[in-house]
Design a protein that fits this description.
76% of the residues lie in helices and 0% in strands. By secondary structure, the chain is mainly alpha-helical. The protein has a domain of 80 residues: Tetratricopeptide repeat domain (Serine Threonine Protein Phosphatase 5, Tetratricopeptide repeat), CATH 1.25.40.10. Helix 13 runs antiparallel to helix 14 and helix 15 runs antiparallel to helix 16. The longest helix has 15 residues. The protein is elongated, with a radius of gyration of 35 Å. 49% of the residues are buried.
């Protein structure tokens, strides 16, 4: 949050200067206070012409130049004032301010450090903290805001900015404390509610975050970001109807908000409104033709509407924009598998794995494709990886057992089916497959018991297998 820096107007009575210089100086101050900065500069310049050692006139002229955004000119005047009076603290402070506005954050900090050991009010430490905020020196900024608070315990903006910095270093719990303190001081502090909502969101406290964003909206009904963030939190608790409402409000306030259209599209998609989601994704793409996530969402929606070719085109576009889009490769692989393009599907699952080596479902689906191509040993390697990542993945045990059975390794297959049954004793498929493998090993009685169990669990193929094998 941008803050106005403390700029001192010297109003102490002047002594030791000619009357004429003093008159110009006082007239310049009056013009400055009336926001006639050009006129003030002329008067301060006249005072300096009469008395070239008039340090306060240089300071005030620098101040007026600051107000006109002539920061380089201001720095020259503050430097002259410091040359004439090396203890001119306000000149160091304001010169730091001007350097800050020119992006010279290190130079600003140097000026502030000159008066670091001299007791000063909280505004000084606040300003130095803000300078360090801009220089992304988060921990140092926190120290400065803390010093400001120590001097002035009710320093509202220092609590807010310190909370902001704590968010920046992911110390969300302490950030919440600072935002809460700011709210205690000013119960209508909109930005503090917003910042606290963000912190709560990062801690996955979605319902509490919603309350804070709702307070922001209560205080500022045109706050687009609050509607958007509240919608994101509603998405997180599966309140898609509420999320759609908030995204719609954000769009009404800012109709070129591509993110709001895209997120609303996902909320509609998750509500099975695929036509509505496609419209939102398309609008997001119109606003930003490089929006990979919108292409991904539209591709997913097209797939749900049985437009496989259109889905592949959109997912391909998402990948073109973002070559490491793991989920886009994975989803495109699913569509290719559905179209019996097993090799194409394997290629996409492989790419998904390259971008995320722990993508368990990509390994599992790639293994299924290899099974279909009768590449059973290769399939087993993928099932092994699934189990390594997720030891209780029952489908991997069943399918690995199936692959081993295809390789006539029935004993190993039985071990896998047994493990699947340990994980889920109600798995009719595991009993069915184990039963058949036992029968292949001439353990007919045991095998038929498994088939009977599969039948009792409702596995449809079990009855025919019993009729064929258990006479």
């Amino acid at each position: 949050m941008m803050r106005v820096f403390f700029l001192l107007i010297l109003i102490a009575p002047l002594t030791g200067y000619s009357q004429s210089a003093e008159e110009h100086f006082n007239r310049g101050k009056s013009k400055h206070l009336s926001q006639d900065y050009h006129g003030a500069i002329l008067d301060f310049t006249n005072a300096i012409k009469i008395d070239s050692a008039f340090s306060k006139a240089y300071f005030q002229r620098g101040f007026s130049k600051d107000e006109l955004s002539d920061y380089e000119g201001a720095i020259m005047d503050y430097s002259r004032a410091i040359l004439l009076d090396s203890n001119f603290l306000e000149a160091y402070l304001n010169r730091g301010y001007s350097k800050f506005n020119l992006g010279d954050y290190e130079g600003a900090i140097v000026d502030y450090k000159i008066i670091e050991t001299i007791p000063y009010d909280g505004e000084f430490y606040f300003n130095r903290g803000y300078t360090k905020t801009q220089a992304l020196e988060h921990k140092e900024a926190i120290l400065e805001y803390t010093r400001a608070i120590e001097i002035y315990p009710e320093y509202l903006d220092a609590y807010y900015n310190r909370g902001f910095e704590k968010n920046s270093i992911k110390n969300y719990e302490e950030a919440i404390l600072d935002y809460s303190r700011a709210i205690e001081i000013d119960p209508n502090y909109v930005d503090a509610y917003f910042g606290r909502g963000y912190s709560k969101s990062k801690l996955l406290d979605h319902k509490e975050a919603i309350l804070d964003y709702s307070k922001v909206i209560e205080l500022d009904s045109a706050n687009t970001n609050a509607y958007f963030n509240r919608a994101v939190e509603k998405d997180a608790i599966f309140d898609y109807e509420g999320a759609i409402f908030d995204y719609s409000k954000a769009i009404k306030l800012e109709n070129n908000n591509a993110d709001a259209y895209c997120n609303r599209g996902f909320a509609k998609m998750l509500s099975s409104d695929y036509k509505g989601s496609m419209q939102d994704f398309t609008k997001a793409i119109e606003l930003d033709s490089t929006y990979a996530r919108a292409y991904f969402g539209r591709g997913f929606s097209k797939d749900e509407l049985s437009d496989d070719d259109g889905a592949i085109l959109d997912l391909t576009m998402a990948i073109k924009i973002f070559p490491d889009y793991t989920d886009a490769y994975y989803n495109r692989g699913i569509i290719k598998a559905k179209l019996f393009d097993n090799k194409g599907a394997i290629s996409d699952y492989t790419k998904a794995i390259e971008t995320d080596s722990n993508y368990v479902n990509a390994y599992f689906n790639r293994a299924i494709m290899k099974d279909d191509l009768e590449h059973y040993n290769a399939a087993i390697l993928d099932y092994n990886k699934v189990i390594e990542i997720e030891p209780n993945y029952i489908g991997a045990y069943i399918n690995r057992g199936f692959a081993k059975a295809k390789l006539l390794d029935y004993k190993a297959a039985i071990i896998d089916y047994t493990k699947a049954i340990e994980i889920d004793s109600e798995s009719g498929m595991a009993y069915y497959n184990r039963g058949l493998s036992k029968i292949e090993l001439s353990k007919k009685a045991e095998g038929c018991l498994d088939l009977e169990k599969a039948k009792a669990l409702g596995y449809e193929d079990a009855a025919a297998a019993i009729k064929e094998n258990c006479k």
